[in-house]
Specification:
With about 220 residues, this protein is of the alpha/beta class. It has eleven helices and six strands. The longest helix is centred in the N-terminal third of the chain and has 16 residues, at about 15-30.
């Protein structure tokens, strides 16, 4: 099997939940909301509203905000790249994979400004060989096409196999398996128990990288 490693971005290579909590604290200060609003925002985020147009529609209604949903969402997208971080040990892990002959790419859903901003500001743009963003390509995981684009940009083909690492059992694991890849699911304990067919289950991306290093 060729040494191709595809990684999800949010809550895989970077800690989006940590950044979201920072954003929520800033948001309630900006709008003069009570401290209990943080808990409500976090609960809404974890309740299954990842699409931010839906999320900010509910936020606007809850707090009777005057800004439009698009204005609220736009400010969020511009701010988040400045709040996310990639741990030094994750960057070191990517460098080790490269040194071992792996080609590495990011496959992520999301708008171009938000996701590309995160990739660039964290330094990940220089740490990977390629990336495929749903907002730029017009297709979303688990569509196999997004995985194909990432592999092709690494000079490889999905027909020769590889790995997908991510925290979503459908978009990352289901999509990766449909693309003919072996998979590592990062179970962060924040999702309801779901059936999956991942080859390995870990709790951190560093553990996933160690599994890749053990492959010969």
């Amino acid at each position: 099997m060729q040494r191709l490693a595809l990684f999800d971005l949010d809550n895989t290579l970077i800690n989006l939940d940590e950044a979201f909590q920072m954003w929520a604290a800033e948001f309630i200060d900006e709008h003069g909301l009570g401290h209990e609003a943080i808990d409500w925002l976090i609960a809404l985020d974890q309740a299954g509203y990842p699409h931010r147009e839906v999320f900010f529609g509910k936020v606007r209604e809850r707090f009777a905000l005057t800004g439009t949903v698009e204005e609220l969402w736009g400010r969020y997208r511009r701010r988040m790249p400045y709040l996310v971080r990639c741990r030094p040990e994750v960057m070191d892990g990517l460098a080790r994979l490269h040194a071992s002959g792996w080609k590495v790419a990011i496959v992520t859903n999301g708008t171009v400004d938000n996701q590309l901003g995160k990739i660039q500001r964290t330094g990940l743009a220089a740490a990977v060989d390629a990336y495929a963003l749903s907002g730029a390509e017009g297709i979303r995981k688990p569509d196999v096409g997004l995985f194909e684009i990432a592999a092709r940009r690494c000079g490889m083909s999905l027909a020769d196999g590889g790995w997908m690492v991510g925290d979503h059992p459908v978009k990352d694991i289901g999509g990766g398996r449909a693309a003919g890849l072996r998979t590592v699911w990062i179970d962060r304990g924040t999702r309801p128990v779901q059936e999956h067919e991942a080859d390995h289950v870990v709790t951190d991306v560093i553990q996933a990288m160690e599994i890749l290093h053990s492959e010969r």
